[in-house]
Design brief:
Elements (H helix, E strand, L loop, with lengths): L1 H8 L7 H22 L3 H6 L1 H10 L6 E4 L6 H6 L37 H14 L6 E6 H4 L2 H10 L7 E7 L10 H11 L1 H15 L5 H19 L3 H5 L3 E7 L3 H13 L3 E7 L7 H5 L25 H15 L3 E5 L9 H6 L4 E3 L4 H13 L3 E7 H4 L3 H9 L6 E7 L14 H6 L5 E3 L4 H14 L4 E6 L20 E4 L4 E5 L3 H8 L3 E2 L1 E4 L2 E3 L3 H10 L2 E9 L4 H8 L8 E7 L9 H8 L3 H10 L3 E2 L4
Parallel strand pairs: 1-2, 2-3, 3-5, 4-5, 6-7, 6-8, 8-9, 9-11, 10-11, 13-15, 13-17, 17-18
Antiparallel strand pairs: 10-16, 12-15, 14-19
């Protein structure tokens, strides 16, 4: 398959329409084959194959810039830009990323992973093109989900205020079926409005009118307003027209002939343009076409049947999913908010049972937080469930709209710590730090199923302050079921005491430490709260031990270790304190267990680290 693909790619600009369709089929087969073995973002990339192929057929990267939003759509782009063999290593440790990265290829114009950034980056490139008199083409490819966020509209609004920018935005709409506008009438208007003769006549008329003494410029303004008014009546893209962007489409994104023709025409037109392309998520793979959300971000699966691999362990997300329903039954004021991730955050079940108290507000994390603040002020109990990495986008709102008013909003931060194959853009390795700096915020990281439920119960029951509960992707440690209890913020769970060295940690690392240090004479303390931290417990630990080693799946800058050091800063007697967390850097992609081993968080790594620092194996009597 790869040999055939290489042959087609080498002559992509000379392919006939039939050969181009063949290339698209080859690409889909190859993407399905690799993702079935490695996992990845399948449905979106399958839907964008024709867009990728035709952009590379028409443009010449890396001189021309294709800026992919999020990167879920960019697998074909990766293959087409010299990474055919490397694509076999997709998302594996040491292999290529699942997202475009500028350090990986000059054809990747912008590193992405979070959504809604492409148009802003394109505006930046366009300004650079203008100031440096370059003649290249700049294209941003953005999905319909991403464009619903606020950032693209901020970029579009700014672009319209800068003279002579030349940007093409491809709106890849894969959520709705092929519109009735994809037909004769739509093609007619597209042909008319992209025709060089029509554009030339329009420009000539405007030039002549502008030369009429005294009234020429005013007439041009009137004509522009009339033109916009007429377009508003007949044009489905009226909204974009009012933002100062010309709109073309919609066009069938899987019709090679039609898409190729309109792309060529639109790319030749100077100015700000949006081409609306309708695609089918999961195109070419029936299981993904039937259940696109299931195959959006997928693990290993059987490509013949579409059956996903199953985990035998209980995940933290599934625990949250079930317990949110229980809380919803007991607290009628409880409302759940998520930002376009109902499945990933485990909130979908709550939404099905309590639809009037469930809000998926799309890719709008900032809005989610302020929305929750308004709810809270009116007596409701808002729970905001968002991935740790995406919550970064809402720091300002958490700070000023929630914490400044001391509102007891509950934040459920899924995917805390290293998440695995999605890599640097998705690791949740900063939330201890950014949540801890926010006044009034309670920051927690429960170690097992029961402690996670207790944290949620405490946050909802007490409603004292903003409350952040962070948990990792995947398996969570089992604990014997018990009645729910309030956990006092700041309290420390003492696992064991003794020896000369203390281990301080939280979350899943507690279980790993217990296993790795089972026969080691040492103390193990579960600091389930990163904020507040109990001053007396810190003082006791500093008095008892010669060394304190703090393991945390968070950057060392401002995390649990920093919190501990701040508490004991004025102690006259202090042990040697070693911070074993994420280095001040971004973690690469790779299997979650491999990354934890490399970072020193596995049971074996913790044991070896402790022994190297003088911990002793307990003697049997």
């Amino acid at each position: 398959m790869r040999d055939r693909l290489k042959d087609l790619i080498s002559r992509i600009k000379k392919l006939t329409y039939d050969e181009t369709s063949e290339l698209c089929a080859e690409l889909r087969d190859y993407i399905i084959d690799v993702v079935s073995k490695n996992g990845g973002h399948l449905a979106s990339s399958l839907g964008a194959v024709e867009i990728s192929v035709l952009l590379h057929r028409i443009l010449s990267t890396p001189e021309d810039k294709i800026i992919w939003d999020v990167g879920h759509q960019a697998y074909a782009h990766k293959i087409l830009t010299g990474r055919i063999d490397e694509f076999q290593t997709l998302r594996t440790y040491g292999g290529i990323s699942g997202f475009p990265r500028t350090c990986e290829s000059p054809h990747d114009a912008f590193s992405v992973g979070h959504s809604s950034t492409s148009i802003s980056a394109a505006v930046g490139y366009a300004v650079g093109k203008k100031q440096q008199n370059k003649n290249n083409t700049i294209v941003a490819v953005i999905g319909d989900g991403s464009i619903s966020s606020g950032m693209p509209f901020e970029a579009m609004n700014q672009a319209s205020q800068i003279k002579d920018l030349d940007i093409t935005v491809i709106l890849n709409d894969n959520e709705m079926s092929i519109s009735p506008n994809v037909g004769a009438l739509s093609r007619y208007f597209n042909n008319l409005r992209t025709d060089p003769i029509y554009i030339g006549i329009r420009d000539d008329v405007e030039y002549l009118i502008s030369k009429i003494p005294a009234i020429g410029k005013n007439m041009i303004n009137v004509l522009e307003r009339v033109s916009t008014g007429l377009k508003t009546v007949i044009d489905p893209g009226a909204f974009f027209l009012h933002l100062g962007w010309d709109y073309y489409g919609p066009v069938d994104g899987h019709d090679i002939n039609a898409l190729n023709k309109i792309l060529k025409k639109v790319l030749k037109i100077k100015g700000l343009k949006i081409l609306h392309v309708i695609t089918k998520k999961g195109k070419g793979y029936l299981p993904a076409e039937k259940e696109p959300s299931k195959f959006h971000g997928v693990g290993i699966f059987n490509k013949e049947t579409g059956e996903l691999g199953k985990s035998s362990s209980v995940s933290a997300t599934s625990v949250v999913s079930d317990y949110l329903v229980e809380l919803g039954e007991n607290y009628k004021e409880l409302n759940v908010i998520t930002a376009a991730m109902p499945d990933g955050t485990g909130t979908k079940k709550f939404g099905e049972l309590f639809p009037n108290r469930y809000f998926d507000i799309g890719i709008s994390e900032e809005h989610a937080t302020t929305f929750a603040a308004g709810m809270c002020l009116d007596g409701l109990i808002p729970v905001v469930a968002i991935y740790s990495t995406f919550m970064q986008r809402s720091i300002d709102q958490i700070m000023h709209d929630v914490a400044l008013q001391n509102l007891p909003v509950v934040f459920l931060l899924d995917r805390g710590g290293v998440v695995g194959e999605d890599g640097g853009t998705h690791h949740g390795t900063f939330d201890f730090s950014f949540m801890r700096m926010i006044p009034e915020m309670i920051v927690s990281a429960p170690k097992d199923i029961e402690e996670l439920k207790d944290m949620m119960f405490t946050a909802v029951k007490q409603r004292l302050k903003p409350f952040s509960i962070r948990y990792s992707r995947g398996k969570i440690a089992y604990a014997t079921p018990r009645e729910r209890k309030i956990i006092e913020p700041g309290s420390v769970d003492i696992i064991k005491e003794g020896g000369k060295i203390a281990v301080i940690t939280n979350s899943y690392i507690v279980e790993f430490a217990q296993k790795g240090l089972e026969d080691i004479d040492c103390g193990i303390y579960n600091f389930r709260f990163v904020k507040p931290i109990d001053y007396n417990t810190v003082k006791k630990i500093c008095n008892m031990y010669k060394k304190v080693i703090i393991f945390e799946d968070n950057t060392v800058c401002g995390g649990l270790g920093s919190a501990f050091l701040e508490e004991c800063a004025d102690f006259e007697k202090k042990p040697i304190i070693i911070l074993k967390g994420i280095p001040d850097d971004f973690v690469e992609h790779g299997d979650q267990n491999i990354l934890r081993e490399k970072l020193g968080f596995s049971s074996n790594s913790i044991r070896n680290f402790m022994l190297s620092h003088g911990a002793e194996i307990e003697k049997a009597y």
